Amino acid sequence: MKRLTGLLLSFLMMVTTLCFPSISFGATEVVPVYLNNKAITFAANDAQPQIFQNRTYVPIRTTCDALGLTIDWNSKTETLTFTREGVTIAHTMRSKIVYINGVKQTFDTASINKNNRTLMPIRMLAESIGATVTWDNDTRSVHITTNTTTDNNSSNTNNNSSTNTNTNTNTTTSADNLTVSSIAVNTSVVNSGNAVTFTAVADSNTSVVRFSDASTGNVYEDVSEYTANSDGTRTFQCRHTFTNTGSSETVATVKAQPGNGTAFSNNANSTKAASIIVKTASSSSSDNSNSNSSSSSSSSYKSDYMVKLKTASTSLSKNDYAKLTITTKSDISKVKITNNFNDEDVVVSDYDEDGSNRVFTGKVKMSSKGTSKLYVYLYVKGQGYEDSYETVTIDVDSSSSSSSSRSLDISDVVTPSNYIYTDVESTVTIYTGTGAKKVEIRDDDDRVVASSGFYTSKTSNKITWNVNMTVKSSGKHNYTVYAYDSDDNSETYDFSFNAKNWSKGSPLILNVEQRSSNIETGDTAKFRVTASYGTSYVTITRGSSSSALDKNSSGSKNSGGDTKSFDLSFKVEEIRDTYYVHAYSSDGGAGNEYALTINGDNSDPIKISKVNVDGTSFSLDDSIEVEVITSNSAQKVWVEDSAGDRISKVYKSPDDEDDDEYTWNIDFNPTKTGRKTFTVIAQGDNSKEEDSYDFTVTITER
Prior knowledge:
Layout: H1 2-19, E1 23-25, E2 28-30, E3 33-35, E4 38-39, E5 50-52, E6 55-59, H2 60-67, E7 70-74, E8 79-84, E9 87-92, E10 97-100, E11 103-106, E12 112-114, E13 117-121, H3 122-127, E14 132-136, E15 141-145, H4 148-165, H5 173-176, E16 180-185, E17 189-190, E18 194-202, E19 208-213, E20 219-223, E21 227-228, E22 234-242, E23 250-259, E24 272-278, H6 281-287, E25 306-311, E26 315-316, E27 321-329, E28 332-339, E29 346-348, E30 352-354, E31 357-365, E32 370-380, E33 384-385, E34 390-396, H7 403-406, E35 410-414, E36 420-421, E37 425-432, E38 438-442, E39 448-452, E40 457-458, E41 463-470, E42 475-484, E43 490-500, E44 509-514, E45 524-532, E46 537-542, E47 550-552, E48 556-557, E49 563-571, E50 578-584, E51 590-597, E52 608-613, E53 617-619, E54 624-631, E55 636-640, E56 656-658, E57 661-668, E58 674-683, E59 690-700
Parallel strand pairs: 3-15, 17-24, 26-34, 36-43, 53-59
Antiparallel strand pairs: 1-2, 2-5, 3-4, 5-6, 6-13, 7-8, 8-9, 9-10, 10-11, 12-13, 14-15, 16-18, 18-22, 19-20, 19-23, 21-22, 23-24, 25-27, 27-31, 28-29, 28-32, 30-31, 32-33, 32-34, 35-37, 37-41, 38-39, 38-42, 40-41, 42-43, 44-45, 45-49, 46-47, 46-50, 48-49, 50-51, 52-54, 54-57, 55-58, 56-57, ...
């Protein structure tokens, strides 16, 4: 009886499938789609055309292939660019707007991301190329009908527009055979008045690439200079400044066409396009303003998925890192941090679990002085990035910042390698302002687990501390660094790491401790390496080089017998480089690789770039005024006469700061008549490095 019932159910299901072409899976109804009365085949293992909220949605890739549309995807802006002969369509995900050859058109339904697949309303996609869409309720199917006349008119319109700006668009066979395989853009969102770099990769026969506005045909630049790549392709770059005087953001689409010097290809399959969002002039001005507003999360927008947004410090020095701790609900799979001072976005997909929440940690290098803004976007699973963002304001070397607070700030905490190993003394490197007198590391129970009152190195704006600590258990550990000044004022910085168990029989670098301080380029750096007992010898290399700067096979056994100590030393060729310590067994088997940077003076070289003298002839009664332009690594400036005697006071504070330069206004009184040569001296904290600049003037009697 059970078998008969099963057969009957199977028969009924088969009849139902044959009789009804649309299929319903739960609340989702899958529908067939026809193009010019021919069914479009969608892969069974991919997304299917479906009805969602009374609208028909289609997977983009298969539908575009059927319609003859090529697709480019900008992951940063989540902008899709579709191209077809004479038509360029730009669309930002989860919006109702498309730009058809630059003309804005709004539909009643937005695109969606469902089960990690991008779906668009079928009318949005088809009607953008002039096709008509009809719904057959009897068969519950969708029919797309393309209009040949409309397509030809669109193509003709575009070609006429191009002719106005391009006198060399008569396509030849050879030009049509050329190909631009990809186009990339260095930023996804640009402020009005700022420039964007487009990079196109073309085949080996392309001699020139035309970058133009895909909507209007206006030519930005014909680029004939290229970089030859190892695979035979060629890379062309164009930089263009965008302006937007409107009241809302707009999408700009740039097309790259390959050419042979006499013609450019208009074949849709040979060209590529990329789209960016251009902010309005008013919003750009607002983003870049040097307001003295609150330095915490200052936007009125609050995401429903945001639990907490914390900034380690809101007053930093230039080139310090701003650290953001972003706590979200579990619906968030990644976060993106953009800014208003450069084109570099930070995307963080790694997170820690905190109960039902997720904690993301991101760092942004503050490369511009003044009031800088960071914008935090949340990526919701199944939906993509939210359209709105939360704002964090950071004062970078700003006069409005508290100098005492800045001098105590903790700018970064660095733990060794990928893990800290259990039961091994490991070094944690802490970077603070110059006002710090002591640092402590405390655990979750507020117990002091390590501290130091002796720094490793000090520069004009930063102190480096190496603090040793030991972890007893594996897993994740959370700590807080406290920095104290002489009055016991304090700043804090949260950090965490994972501890890992290890085997003494395998070659393994457990910790590296720098034994020499205040290292500069050209000095000898010394390190004490703690390795497992199974390590036979250790080496140290620089950067990508495999050549050992030093090797030591004479390790001394430490108490307990599980570890050995090796000493390494070498002459530092470039202090800013990353160095790697390697562990090896007796048979030459390689263990792990331990990356390190040298704690020392890695500031830019002292350089005087310009000296401006207020005149060429002076009397003994005159005060000679001199403007000196130096690198921002200069900490003091003065003037000497030809005998090497200082004849001005020592200036220790620049009069103006602009990006990487200092401006000093110096004056002095001459003491002797005649044609005299004077020397400007610029020096850092360390008197071993300086730069000089001579100038000559005539000195007359009073």
